[in-house]
C-alpha cells in the first residue's frame, strides 16, 4: 500500500466516480463516532441530521467528510446495495483490542433493523462481492458477529498455528503471511467469532 493511501482506500479501493450518497444517511444514525472533533453513540441519529440530511454539511466534522461506506468504493457491490436501499451497511471496522488476528482491521457487513437483506438474498450477494480478497469479512445481525471470510477451517488453522492440510496450505499461508503477526500467543488465540 502506498504510504499516502488511507486504510479504507487500501482495503476497498478509491471512491467510485459514478456513485454518491444521494439521500442515504444511514451512517449518520447507525455508526458510533468517537473522534477528536465529534462523538455520538451507535444507532443514534446525529444531532445535525434533519429531514433533508446533514444540517451542517458544508462545515461537517472531518470524520464525516472523509468516511465512506463500501458501497461508495466497491464496484462489485450492485447499485441496489446502497445502505438505505438494501438494509446493509458495509464498512471497514477497527477493533482496538481484537480477540484474534481477524478482528483488528476488517470489513463489517451490518444488517440494519428491519432489513430483509437475508431473506431476499441481498446479504449473500454483498458477501460474495467482498469475499474475494485477503481481508477478513464479518457479518453482524445486531445480536452477534460472525466471521464469514476466511471460512472457519482456514481461520482456525491461521489462528491456532496448526499445520494446514495440503488442500488449504496455500490459502492458510497467505492469511498467516498477512495477519499472523497480529495473532496473540497462547491457546486463547484460537477463538474465532
Structure characterization notes:
The structure is a single chain. The chain is globular, with a radius of gyration of 18 Å. Strand 6, helix 5 and strand 7 form a beta-alpha-beta unit. The model is unreliable at 184-191 (pLDDT under 50). It starts with 6 loop residues before the first helix and ends in a 14-residue tail after the last helix. 25% of the residues lie in helices and 17% in strands. Helix 6 (152-160) crosses helix 7. By secondary structure, it is an alpha+beta fold. The chain is built from 7 helices and 8 strands, in the order H-H-E-E-E-E-H-H-E-E-H-E-E-H-H.
Write the layout of secondary structure elements.
Layout: H1 7-12, H2 27-30, E1 33-35, E2 38-40, E3 49-50, E4 53-54, H3 62-66, H4 83-86, E5 88-94, E6 105-111, H5 122-130, E7 137-140, E8 145-149, H6 152-160, H7 169-179
Parallel strand pairs: 6-7
Antiparallel strand pairs: 1-2, 3-4, 5-6, 7-8
Biggest sheet character: 4 strands, mixed
Helical content band: 10-25%
Q: What is the string of helix and strand elements?
A: HHEEEEHHEEHEEHH
The spatial strand order of the largest sheet comes to 5-6-7-8
Uncertain spans: 184-191
Gross geometry = globular
- How many runs of DSSP E, i.e. beta strands? 8
Strand fraction equals 15-25%
Mean pLDDT: 88
- State the distance separating the first and last CA atoms: 28 Å
Computed over alpha carbons, the radius of gyration is 18 Å
- The SS-based structural class is alpha+beta
The number of distinct helices, counting runs of at least 4 residues, comes to 7
Amino acid at each position: 500500500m502506498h504510504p499516502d493511501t488511507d486504510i479504507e482506500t487500501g482495503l476497498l479501493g478509491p471512491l467510485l466516480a459514478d456513485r454518491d450518497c444521494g439521500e442515504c444517511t444511514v451512517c449518520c444514525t447507525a455508526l458510533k463516532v468517537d473522534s477528536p472533533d465529534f462523538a455520538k453513540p451507535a444507532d443514534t441519529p446525529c444531532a445535525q441530521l434533519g429531514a433533508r440530511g446533514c444540517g451542517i454539511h458544508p462545515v461537517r466534522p472531518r470524520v464525516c467528510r472523509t468516511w465512506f461506506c463500501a458501497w461508495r468504493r466497491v464496484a462489485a457491490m450492485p447499485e441496489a446495495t446502497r445502505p438505505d436501499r438494501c438494509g446493509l451497511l458495509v464498512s471497514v471496522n477497527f477493533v482496538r483490542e481484537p480477540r484474534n488476528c481477524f478482528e483488528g482491521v476488517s470489513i463489517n457487513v451490518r444488517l440494519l433493523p428491519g432489513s430483509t437483506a437475508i431473506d431476499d438474498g441481498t446479504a449473500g450477494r454483498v458477501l460474495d462481492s467482498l469475499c474475494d480478497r485477503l481481508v477478513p469479512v464479518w457479518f453482524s445481525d445486531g445480536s452477534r458477529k460472525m466471521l464469514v471470510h476466511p471460512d472457519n477451517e482456514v481461520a482456525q488453522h491461521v489462528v491456532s498455528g496448526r499445520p494446514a492440510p495440503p488442500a488449504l496450505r496455500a490459502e492458510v499461508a497467505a492469511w498467516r503471511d498477512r495477519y499472523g503477526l497480529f495473532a496473540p500467543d497462547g491457546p486463547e488465540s484460537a477463538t474465532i467469532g
